Backbone:
């Protein structure tokens, strides 16, 4: 069958169109140019602006920032959501399990985290700077025993194992009218038979809690049983969590739904006996890189084994006023960052060499950088810029590739081929890439990293 000129032109157009569409999704995301999101602008497409409450009570709340908009116009290679948990002093986040794994980072306060690990109940004491993983499907609770300090936790939420009911789905073990226990759905008749108690007793227990998912421990703000829970010694608290989470009175100790749960989960024991994960304090880690203009800390499975099966890494960056984390790209990870202090400028570049986003961010803002995309972060002239991040990566370790600076890949490339690529002489390209004498974190253009004569000589072409 012969194809005429018109048919050939149409076929060529279809091939080109298909190729363009394939290239648009090859980087792991797709963006509709006409509409970026609800109230969003294209120059803010890598900012995660909208948070939503997923748990809320008088004692605290948890809010989540999703990694893509609700209509799915951004398709991310490995999505990650960012959660913010805030709890008043003397409060408890009720025992539950999630369909997503968490990595907790303690921002302010102190916390006790109870976790069922390999069929045993263990507790870990967390302080500021600690990192701690919660696997999907593992029952846990968080206790803020501080008398006067509000607890603030930032967490990554990996939905790769989720049921796709939203940011994540929570399943409360203890509960009543608010929140409801997952057991309550079976109804009084089934629970009565399962627990071998009367239906009236089941109904009383499973309707008592109504304080919400985060409850006060103090007598003046919540049930006495929560206060008793906080006062127990560690091992006694672990043994009695079965009674406390259901709000049982002292006279009701002779039976518990925990008798049923124990058959599944096993008994309680210490962290050491079962090699349960211990927290890692990222503030105590020696920076992987430091110079006069800032530092960067990276944490992965090679130094914190509990991260081995998560595919998640953690990093922490601090830039002095005006300094820059040099333009770079991540060959094996998508980054999600939260501004902890100060303000700065975020620039991200499309694969075609055009600017995708150039915005100023401040404390509390969340932004993400897709895998392979070139980006740089610059601190404001007036204040330092500190941000924490999570990397959602493949099994291989992420090693950022810097595009500018003394350690940039431009120095590794053959200078003759590089000069030909830019269409300039070899001498000029060498002068260009050698002009910057710092690596990774670069000084402000006004910083005295070299005297003026040397700088002029270095960058003259």
Residues:
């Amino acid at each position: 069958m012969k194809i005429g000129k018109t048919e050939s032109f149409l076929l060529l157009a279809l091939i080109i169109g298909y190729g363009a569409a394939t290239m648009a999704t090859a980087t792991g995301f797709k963006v509709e140019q006409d509409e970026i999101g609800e109230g969003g602008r294209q120059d803010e497409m890598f900012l995660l602006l909208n948070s939503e409450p997923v748990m809320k009570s008088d004692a605290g709340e948890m809010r989540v920032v999703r990694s893509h908009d609700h209509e799915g116009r951004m398709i991310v290679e490995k999505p990650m959501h960012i959660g913010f948990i805030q709890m008043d002093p003397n409060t408890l986040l009720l025992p539950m399990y999630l369909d997503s794994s968490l990595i907790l980072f303690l921002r302010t306060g102190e916390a006790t985290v109870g976790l069922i690990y390999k069929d045993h109940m263990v507790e870990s004491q967390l302080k500021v700077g600690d990192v701690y993983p919660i696997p999907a499907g593992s029952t846990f609770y968080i206790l803020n025993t501080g008398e006067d300090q509000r607890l603030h936790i930032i967490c990554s939420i990996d939905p790769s194992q989720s049921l796709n009911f939203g940011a994540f789905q929570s399943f409360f073990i203890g509960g009543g009218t608010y929140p409801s226990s997952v057991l309550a759905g079976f109804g009084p008749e089934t629970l009565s038979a399962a627990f071998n108690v009367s239906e009236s007793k089941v109904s009383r227990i499973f309707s008592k809690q109504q304080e919400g998912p985060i409850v006060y421990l103090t007598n003046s703000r919540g049930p006495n049983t929560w206060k008793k829970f906080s006062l127990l010694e560690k091992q006694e608290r672990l043994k009695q969590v079965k009674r406390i989470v259901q709000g049982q009175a002292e006279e009701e100790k002779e039976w518990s739904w925990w008798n049923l749960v124990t058959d599944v989960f096993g008994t309680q024991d210490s962290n050491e006996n079962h090699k349960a994960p211990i927290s890692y304090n990222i503030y105590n880690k020696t920076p992987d890189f430091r110079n006069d203009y800032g530092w960067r800390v990276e944490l992965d499975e090679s130094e914190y084994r509990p991260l081995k099966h998560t595919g998640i890494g953690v990093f922490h960056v601090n830039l002095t006023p005006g300094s820059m984390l040099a333009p770079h790209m991540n060959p094996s990870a998508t980054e999600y960052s939260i501004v902890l202090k100060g303000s700065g400028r975020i620039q991200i570049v499309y694969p075609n060499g055009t600017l995708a986003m150039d915005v100023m961010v401040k404390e509390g803002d969340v932004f993400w950088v897709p895998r392979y995309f070139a980006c740089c972060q610059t601190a404001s002239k007036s204040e330092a810029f500190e941000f924490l991040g999570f990397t959602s990566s493949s099994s291989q370790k992420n090693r950022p590739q810097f595009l500018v600076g003394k350690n940039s890949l431009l120095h590794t490339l053959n200078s003759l081929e590089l000069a030909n690529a830019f269409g300039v002489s070899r001498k000029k390209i060498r002068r260009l890439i050698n002009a910057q004498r710092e690596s990774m974190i670069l000084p402000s253009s006004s910083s005295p990293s070299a005297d003026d004569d040397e700088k002029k000589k270095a960058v003259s072409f």
In short: The chain has two domains: 49-281, 285-452. The domain at 49-281 is CATH 2.60.120.10 (Jelly Rolls). The longest strand covers residues 333-349. Residues 5-26 form the longest helix (22 residues).
